[in-house]
Design goal:
Elements: E1 11-13, E2 24-32, E3 37-38, E4 42-44, E5 49-58, E6 62-76, E7 83-97, E8 110-111, E9 116-118, H1 120-127, H2 152-156, H3 171-180, H4 193-203
Parallel strand pairs: 7-8
Antiparallel strand pairs: 1-9, 2-5, 3-4, 4-6, 5-6, 6-7
Length: about 200
């Protein structure tokens, strides 16, 4: 079994609080966000700052932790695929039971390790449910026109028109080809107007 490290940023030592019901202690800290704090589309970047303002209260069963957690989430808009960055503040409340007070039936109750509290499980329970299931950059985001693979704003800025039968999955490559045109040797000199006219006369 892995033991908690009292020096870890998300571990709180409650020895100063004691086990006297009614005693309380305030603590504030900035800790790096743990890995996988979120979903596949939006989450808190690993290592980014999380600011915690907490109140520890000694109760009969253990230590009640309440407070707020603030930080920043990043992700992609599910409609237009633009990057999203938003600040958040969530409320945290969790009871950590003394080892002697918990029972086998208390599966959902977090247990202290001696005088130490691991805040990470409570942090996940507070943050992850508040994240949007389908994040959008704004409520009226028009999304990607399926035949272009571009947002309306990008299209209005001069995106090349593509045939209607272009598979949306290949739209990005089709746009690149339409924008860049055929490759030309750097050493090849541009044709003059008379040369172009001669070529047209030969074709005629």
């Amino acid at each position: 079994m892995k033991h908690l490290d009292p020096r870890a940023p998300l571990v709180v030592d409650t020895r100063e609080l004691g086990r006297r019901p009614g005693a309380s202690q305030r603590t504030a800290r900035t800790a790096p966000a743990p890995a996988d704090l979120g979903s596949e589309v939006v989450g808190v970047p690993q290592g980014s700052d999380l600011h915690l303002e907490l109140l520890l209260e000694s109760v009969m069963e253990g230590v009640l932790v309440t407070g707020t957690v603030t930080g920043t989430t990043t992700g992609q808009c599910v409609r237009c695929l633009d990057d999203i960055e938003r600040s958040f503040e969530v409320r945290l409340q969790e009871l950590y039971a003394y080892p002697s007070a918990s029972t086998a039936d208390d599966e959902d109750v977090l247990e202290m390790e001696g005088d130490l509290i691991d805040l990470e499980p409570a942090l996940r329970d507070a943050v992850v449910p508040t994240l949007p299931f389908q994040p959008v950059c704004r409520e009226d985001c028009p999304g990607l026109p399926t035949q272009y693979g571009l947002s309306d704003e990008a299209f209005e800025e001069g995106a090349p028109e593509l045939p209607a039968d272009v598979d949306p999955r290949w739209a990005a490559l089709a746009r690149l080809a339409a924008t860049s045109g055929p490759a030309r040797d750097e050493d090849e000199a541009p044709q003059t107007t008379p040369q172009i006219e001669q070529q047209n006369n030969r074709k005629g």
